Amino acid sequence: MRHRKLPETWKTYRIGDPDGIWPIWDSGGARRASGRWHEAGADVIYASRTYSTAMLEKLVHYNGALPPNQHFLEITVPAGLSYEVVNPDTIPGWAAADGNVARRLGTAWYKETRAAMLVVPSVVARMEFNVVFNAAHPEFPMIKPGLEIPVWWDKRLFDITKR
Question: What digits encode the pLDDT tens for the residues 139-150?
Answer without folding.
Answer: 999 999 999 999
